[in-house]
User: Which sequence fits this backbone?
């Protein structure tokens, strides 16, 4: 398998854009299109603890790399291993115009790299994934008429199938795209795609941290890296301007403290406390808790939190109340197995413990 390497000039150019005083606002990935995948993050710890451990290990490797230029080839290499792919690319969103800039590759020659150096439309697999804010898969590039402009390049490179996964920061902003390519037609399994998507969340957050302050001078607008309030990023915008089925949820994350009590989790009391708005009857208190859990797990993986600390994600309909009156409470801890527990109060819908 070829080793991944960076395209130095495009990488330097696009990272410099994040130090601009007038960057174009980054597009936000629609949470409604990622609902099942976000909820699956917590489920992965229950269903496939080994897969979750592998993701945690991969995230730990990224956390220990001090420079973005060294992080990107590792992300591409892990993505290729996860998908069993022969080729791979990473693109970073240019904050000036939302274009996808090819910065890292493995296995391709100049013709392919020149052709996909800058992608500004959706007439490619990666462009479609960026426009939709969701994973895009093409089982056979020769079967899709929209890819006709790229067929000559695909044939020369030996590419038959492609998957593109968004790289997303913790606020749901699209940072870039990681794509893997194979010389044979075929679609990855749903399990492989789910794991790849979760890896895209971890890798996206790592890249965002470097862009926000690691490799570039200044702090780019639109990429805050302190705080984790979810009320704005995770709120769901009602479809077609209607408020039908809209529900407002309040959440708070606690940790045990002292003989009988709890305290707010995080560096400061409001770090893991806020509001989430949903717009579908199926997006209930359990769903809202899973969104918060996804942010917690991603934060732990990036920061390398381990141990037996237990946290409780409390969710209320409307406004925050006592833990006993929460609509749902999710109890879990990083890196260890746990057992389900009964609800603490009669008004709770349930308590789940995940890894």
Assistant:
């Amino acid at each position: 398998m070829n080793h991944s390497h960076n395209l130095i000039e495009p990488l330097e150019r696009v990272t410099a854009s994040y130090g601009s005083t007038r960057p174009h606002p980054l597009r936000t990935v629609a949470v409604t299109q990622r609902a099942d995948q976000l909820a699956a993050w917590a489920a992965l710890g229950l269903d496939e603890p080994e897969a979750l451990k592998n993701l945690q290990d991969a995230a730990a490797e990224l956390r220990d790399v001090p420079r973005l230029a060294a992080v990107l080839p590792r992300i591409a290499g892990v993505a290729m291993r996860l998908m069993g792919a022969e080729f791979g690319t990473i693109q970073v969103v240019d904050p000036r115009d939302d274009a996808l800039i090819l910065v890292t590759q493995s296995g391709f020659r100049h013709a392919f790299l020149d052709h996909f150096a800058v992608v500004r439309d959706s007439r490619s697999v990666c462009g479609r994934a960026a426009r939709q804010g969701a994973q895009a898969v093409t089982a056979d590039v020769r079967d899709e008429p929209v890819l006709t402009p790229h067929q000559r390049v695909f044939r020369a490179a030996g590419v038959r199938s492609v998957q593109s996964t968004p790289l997303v920061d913790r606020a749901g902003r699209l940072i870039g795209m990681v794509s893997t390519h194979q010389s044979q037609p075929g679609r990855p399994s749903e399990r492989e795609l789910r794991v790849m998507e979760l890896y895209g969340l971890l890798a996206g957050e790592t890249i965002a941290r470097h862009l926000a302050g690691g490799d570039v001078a200044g702090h780019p607008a639109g990429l805050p890296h302190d705080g984790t309030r979810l009320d704005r990023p995770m709120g769901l915008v009602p479809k077609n301007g209607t408020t039908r089925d809209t529900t407002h949820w309040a959440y708070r994350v606690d940790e045990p403290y002292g003989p009988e009590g709890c305290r707010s989790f995080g560096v400061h009391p409001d770090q893991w406390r806020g509001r989430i708005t949903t717009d579908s009857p199926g997006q209930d208190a359990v769903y809202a808790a899973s969104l918060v859990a996804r942010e917690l797990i991603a934060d732990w993986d990036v920061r390398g939190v381990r141990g037996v600390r237990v946290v409780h994600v409390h969710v209320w309909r409307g406004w925050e109340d006592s833990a006993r009156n929460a609509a749902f409470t999710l109890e879990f801890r990083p890196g260890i197995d746990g057992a389900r527990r009964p609800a603490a109060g009669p008004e709770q819908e349930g308590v789940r413990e995940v890894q």
User: Anything to note?
Assistant: The first strand starts at residue 5 and ends at 6. The two ends are 33 Å apart (CA to CA).
